[in-house]
Amino acid sequence: MAAETSPKRVVQPEISEAEDGRMILNIGPQHPSTHGVLRVLAKVAGETIEEAECDIGYLHRGVEKLIETKRYYQGMTYTDRTDYTAAPANNLGYILAVEKLLGIENEIPDRAHYLRMIVMELARIYGHLIWIGTHALDMGAMSMFLYAFREREKISGLFEEGCGARLTTNFFRVGGVGRHDDPPGWLEHVQEFAETFTVEEFDTLLTDNELYKSRTKGVGIISTEDAISIGLTGPSLRGSGVEWDLRRHRPYARYNEIDYKIPVFTEGDVYARYMVRLNELYQSRSMIAQCVERARDLRGEPANANLADVVWPEIERVSGWQPDKRSGDMEAMINHFKLVIEGYKPPAGDAYFGVESPKGELGFYFVSDGSGIPYRCHIRSPSFVNLSSLKQLVEGGLMADLVACIGSIDIVLGEVDR
Amino acid sequence: MPFGTGIIKGMAKVLGIGSREPVTYHYPENPRPVAERFRGMVGMRRDEVTDLLSCVGCGLCETACPNEVIHIDTSQAEDGTRWVERYEFDLGRCIYCYLCIEACPVDALQVTHAYHTLTPDRSELVISSEEMMEMWESQDRFLFERYWNE
Ligand code: SF4
Ligand code: SF4
Questions:
Q1: Per-residue pLDDT at A318
Q2: Which of B53, B54, B58 to mutate for ligand 2's pocket (most ligand atoms within 8 Å of CB)?
Q3: What is the 8-class DSSP label of residue A251?
Q4: What percent of chain A has pLDDT over 70?
Q5: Sign of CA dihedral A231, A235, A237, A242
Q6: Closest ligand 1 atom number to CA of residue B99
Q7: Ramachandran category for residue A95: left, alpha or beta (phi over 0 → left; psi -120 to 50 → alpha)
């Protein structure tokens, strides 16, 4: 055992030596079905898992600490790299927390909110699609994976059209959406996507599939009480019968102005969590259509707050390489230099903001000491908290169900380890 | 519903989808067109008047970059003239966030659609302002074409 041969680096202290026919099985960290670099140590008796222990940290990059060394506007580039399956959701969490810290939440124009919501819901579909594809692949449904990625590719294209990047979007800016205001035709493309997005296809392929049902129904059950006491959030919690969605219960942006349902299933098993996510795909699709409509009505209105001491760059006012464009606005130039070099300085204090990311409650907590660099940044990542339920899900179950359970809580190791 | 109905329904769906047009691109022979806003490598504008670097050496891009990609040295002559001695861009560290472009007050840094950084040697990824200007002028050319053709 590793614990004996290398006493300096004890990596599996929790599970004791196997005895009387028990075996300790090491799953991961390089196993495709662990959805990243997760290592699970399972003590098995035959096919039954008696004890399971997660070993994480393989993807730890110190994102929080890195953010504490950067100005606020730079820190956002790192949030793309925590939950990389739905980067704009992290961007939004970060931005909203900084806006709260600055105390400018009420100054954000409506159009910015709707654009953010469009991107956020696209990100939810984006995140759920990768989940539905890989989870179904784990369960042996190969074609789902291909179709999910085909649809996902369209969203990548929309992100690319909107902000220039497909994966690491860095989409929003404090005060609005920065330079990533909707380009001509973008809203139409989003609407076209919302109209043609084929959730029904996934529904037909999986929901009634007897093989899928027999692999997932009654597997990995977590009760409502346990789910709450562990701190599960997002679809995993709603699969256990708790109606808790930050979009509705702690509304941000303009989520309280559009219509949507919160799918809740009470069984608490893998299938219930699948049903929640599947129904969220339907909901997000209709939310996107509503938001596009509102954003269209607001066309022509600004997408950035009119706050000279926060919103940068004022590149139109500053930049002057074409003589006819030159504004010669010295005040703006000085302000721009100040903003880039010092960053905006929130007043001393702290702020927490949680958004409903595709995985659950994604929160950013900042402590400011009044300088342009956060004194402390903490990320409450849903994957990390949700992963702590794995022990409960798999213990007592079959080895083959482990894969279904890991898949069903939708973890991203970039976010678990940060 | 008798057992197997769901499976058969799914199979029928798969067969139906199989008859659709392919959605993939055959990269690299036939790369996918990129969007107008696509964030490729950062290029540098060549000044129309002087035909040289349009950077004024203010250093804002260096400050705004979260990854220490850009290194600038500036010099000043005795008569007070200033110029950019060295402009170095380490593509290997760049995360294409474009904060530098947003920061540049004279629009010297420019968006390009070039994205092939194929090279067997990391040190080749440190490019000079001259290469950045070439990249901006030729937009989508392969940066390390020679390796690509090999
Ligand atoms: S794109 Fe981002 S990482 Fe690259 S040089 Fe500019 S600021 Fe730095
Ligand atoms: S911000 Fe623009 S002008 Fe200033 S140093 Fe960078 S490239 Fe040159």
A1: 56
A2: B58
A3: -
A4: 91
A5: positive
A6: 7
A7: alpha
pLDDT at A9 over 60: no
B43 DSSP β-pair partners:
B110
ipTM confidence: 0.83
Residues of A in contact with B96 (CB under 8 A): 164-165, 168
**Atom from ligand 2 closest to the CA of residue B104:** 1
Q: Is A143 within 8 Å of chain B by CB? A: yes
In chain B the first and final C-alpha atoms are separated, in Å, by 59
pLDDT over 60 at A7, yes or no: no
Tell if the CB–CB gap between B37 and A319 is shorter than 8 Å: no
pLDDT tens sequence across A68-114: 998 888 888 888 888 888 888 898 899 999 988 888 888 888 888 88
SS3 assignment for B49-88: CCCCECCCCCCHHHHHCCCCCEEEEEEECCCCCEEEEEEE
| Interchain contact, A160 vs B5, CB within 8 Å | no
| Residues A101, A105, A109: CA angle, nearest 5 degrees | 145
- Count of beta carbons in the 10 Å neighbourhood of residue B58: 20
Give contacts of A319 with chain B, Cβ < 8 Å.
Answer: 104-107
